[in-house]
Specification:
Oligomer: single chain
Number of strands: 18
Helix content: 25-40%
Strand order of the largest sheet: 3-4-2-1-5-6-7-10-9-8
Structural class: alpha/beta
Radius of gyration: 23 Å
Bound molecules: adenosine-5'-diphosphate
Largest sheet: 10 strands, mixed
Length: 501
């Protein structure tokens, strides 16, 4: 029986401190006997392909070190200063240097050349995210003929934006080495199809995209939380302490919370302007609200991120200078990390969750905020229409994050919302967060990849069949809450639904 081999730029850190993607993959692989391959996060003077291996439960984690130049050109360069801004519609921030794309190609080759000898013919390979688009093609070049799937965690851009990358054609062609390309939303899949049909002379036939002499299946698989795990985190002493602390702090004030990596895609300066507009238009509320923005620093080596940090702190300072009194400041901006347990407590204490990215593949903070709420007295989620999550979470207050008046109106509506309406919205949101969790995402993707590789077309959506990869059937790994007859279909709203007829 073949193994599941997952490849991502970063793997779960040994000390437990991992980014969002690594947390999601770790949850998806929990209890599975799989291999997880990626960069160690360490640098070496000369790349020699040496691998380190450790175990995390049944999971074998295999890592390689990269050279300084790899880090500059592949990671800080092409991945985070070209692909990330372009895919988040920020061509103004993109660096199109040729050395970056060369470094990106080199590191993908290095990943493939060190991974290929470890692969067995019946393995199933699942590659994650924008750092590793060419990896599948490199593995094919080295002779691997089994199923390879790719999942993009960030948005796929509109064709006009994608074509600003000088290597756009090569990147698109690289994707055609995969059997299945998964994205967060139907909108992203449509943008990819539009590029393939409009720019690459491709065709869409029988649900398969054909171009560059190959074919693939492209489909949306919205990622979810490890919801049960997050609910359990919310009951830990750390979470309860954070809840008590923030509830006491907010005794006479309603807490509004934002939690984001300090990234320009998250819309933090625009959010601050929206909050400021709310204060201007609701002066009677100035002493009754506190906006807490938790924003750990991110990619601090990249120039745009340094400018963002200065901008956010300056804006928060300016708003406080205008509105603070000696015993009250309306904005609290905290540039640091907290444990996810502590975040669960803070979310629960907050009357409003303000999640307003300018562009986001999914946004898991929106789902965490919902999962953390008290069922009998939940807070209100304000969610940007440009987050992938908005395609599913229609009972949030959906806003245009660029429009400060709209943000201010949503804050007024959220803070004034009666309990009945809050409970009604929360119940609908929580049902989706519970059902479309990370385990369902994994099962759907792997089921579809198996079918795509065997050349079978899924009748509608892929059935969640018990897949035997490694020792355990994947669908037996997590307790499911699906209603009987559930077939893994996704409703028009994006949440999974029971099969019709
Ligand atoms: P992204 O992957 O772009 O950072 P997501 O919202 O999808 O955005 O995922 C972010 C993850 O990082 C969430 O699980 C969230 O809890 C976590 N996170 C965000 N901010 C912090 C913070 N200040 N401390 C700890 N974890 C954080």
């Amino acid at each position: 029986m073949g193994r599941l081999v997952v490849v991502s730029n970063r793997v779960a850190a040994a000390d437990g401190a991992s980014g969002g993607l690594a947390v999601a993959i770790a949850a998806a692989l929990q209890g599975e006997s799989a291999v997880w391959f990626g960069w160690s996060g360490e640098r070496t003077a000369h790349f020699d392909g040496a691998l380190a291996s450790r175990r995390l439960g049944d999971l074998e984690i295999v890592t390689l070190d990269l050279e300084d130049l790899d880090f500059d050109e592949y990671y800080n360069g092409y991945a985070n200063a070209a692909l990330w801004p372009v895919f988040h519609s920020r061509t103004d921030l993109a660096a199109y240097d040729r050395s970056f794309s060369e470094g990106y190609a080199r590191v993908n080759r290095r990943f493939a050349e060190t991974l290929a000898p470890l692969l067995r013919a019946d393995d199933l390979v699942w590659v994650h995210d924008y750092h590793l688009i060419p990896l599948g093609r490199e593995l094919r070049r080295l002779g691997f003929a089994g199923p390879i799937g790719f999942f993009l965690h960030i948005p796929w851009p509109a064709p006009q934006l994608f074509t600003t990358l000088p290597q756009h054609r090569d990147l698109a062609q690289a994707l055609f080495a995969y059997d299945l390309v998964g994205m967060q939303t139907d909108e992203c899949v449509a943008a990819f199809e539009a590029y393939v049909l409009g720019e690459a002379g491709g065709a869409l036939e029988g649900g398969r995209l054909k171009a560059f002499g190959r074919q693939l299946r492209a489909q949306a698989f919205p990622i979810g939380l490890d919801t049960d795990d997050f609910l359990a985190l919310g009951r830990t002493p750390d979470a309860l302490r954070a809840y008590d602390r923030m509830s006491a702090h907010g005794l006479y004030r309603s807490l509004i919370v934002g939690v984001d990596r300090l990234d320009y895609s998250k819309g933090i300066p625009e959010r601050l302007l929206g909050f400021e507009h709310y204060l201007k238009t609701h002066p009677e509320m100035v002493r009754k609200v506190l906006y807490l923005q938790i924003a750990p620093s991110s990619r601090a080596d990249v120039e745009a991120y340094q400018a963002l940090r200065a901008n956010v702190l300056a804006q928060a300072g300016r708003i406080n200078a205008a509105w603070a009194e000696m015993d009250h400041a309306p904005v609290l901006c905290v540039i640091r990390n907290y444990s996810r347990a502590e975040l669960a407590g803070v979310y629960r204490a907050a009357r409003v969750g303000l999640v307003t990215p300018l562009r986001d593949g999914m946004n898991l903070v929106a789902k965490e905020y919902v999962a953390a709420q008290a069922p009998e007295d939940p807070g209100v989620l304000i969610l940007s229409r440009f987050a992938g999550a908005a395609r599913q979470m229609k009972d949030a207050l959906i806003v245009n994050p660029y429009a400060r008046e709209e943000l201010a109106d949503a804050l007024a509506e959220a803070l004034g919302m009666d309990r009945r309406e809050r409970v009604r919205r929360w119940q609908a949101l929580m049902a989706g967060v519970s059902q479309s969790d990370v385990h369902a995402w994994r099962d759907d993707f792997i089921g579809a990849l198996t079918l795509a590789h065997s050349g079978q077309a899924p009748a509608e959506r892929p059935r969640r069949t018990p897949l035997t990869l490694g020792r355990a059937p994947l669908s037996s790994l997590a307790p499911r809450r699906d209603p009987p007859g559930h077939d893994g279909a996704v409703s028009a709203s994006g949440w999974r639904t029971t099969a019709q007829g």
